[in-house]
Design goal:
Helices cover 84% and strands 0% of the residues. By secondary structure, it is mainly α. It has one domain. Helix 7 (85-108) packs across helix 8 and helix 9 (129-154) crosses helix 10 (158-195). It is globular.
Length: 196
């Protein structure tokens, strides 16, 4: 706990860029309680909450490339040692059907979601890099915008609220995001059929 506070104090010197650097470290190597850190940034500079969310989401997408490339470089054997073949095939099928949502939804959820395991699996199942980064960015942006709006309304104590009710809250927001995405995709598909 003291380690992340030292990291937070160090990163605070970099202003808005510090939250992006923290998200990059958190997603790649050093676990940092990003929700608490982001809440402090947002509470101390309320007018730029959207910028903190944006930079944290970009940092997280870039930092996620490390576990992603580790999975891509030969993680299939590693994964098969930890899950049975049947479960492995189910995870693979989920990625093949809906890879964007398979990565976006875990990116929206707070800890203890095994996010790095999902990122590693995205590499193993050879999800393309651009959709991978976009799905992580979108998921993190939804998560941290919801958190920031709660912090603005309730104060820094909102982090505890998200930690306690986060999965249910983010599942609702995620469900709404999925509905909007499906509506947009169907509309786009329909418009393509009409023009073709």
């Amino acid at each position: 706990m003291a380690k992340w506070k030292l990291v937070a104090l160090f990163l605070a010197q970099f202003g808005v860029w510090g939250v992006g650097a923290a998200a990059l470290l958190d997603s790649s190597t050093i676990p940092i309680p990003m929700d608490a850190l982001l809440a402090v940034y947002v509470w101390n500079d309320k007018s730029h909450f959207w910028l903190y969310c944006l930079l944290a989401s970009v940092g997280s997408a870039i930092g996620g490339l490390l576990p992603y490339w580790l999975g891509r470089a030969g993680g299939e054997l590693f994964l098969l040692k930890r899950v049975n073949r049947r479960r492995y095939e189910r995870i693979r099928a989920r990625f093949e059907r809906q890879e964007f949502l398979a990565m976006m939804i875990p990116s929206m959820l707070p800890p203890p979601t095994p996010w790095k395991a999902c990122v590693f699996a995205a590499g193993v199942f050879e999800m393309r890099v651009v959709p991978f980064m976009l799905s992580v960015f979108c998921g993190r942006m939804v998560r941290w915008l919801v958190l920031s709006l709660l912090v603005l309304k309730l104060g820094p104590g909102a982090v505890g609220l998200v930690a306690h009710h986060g999965p249910a809250l983010l599942a609702i927001v995620g469900g709404l995001a999925v509905i909007v995405f499906v509506w947009w995709w169907m509309r786009k598909k329909r418009a393509g059929k009409l023009s073709g």
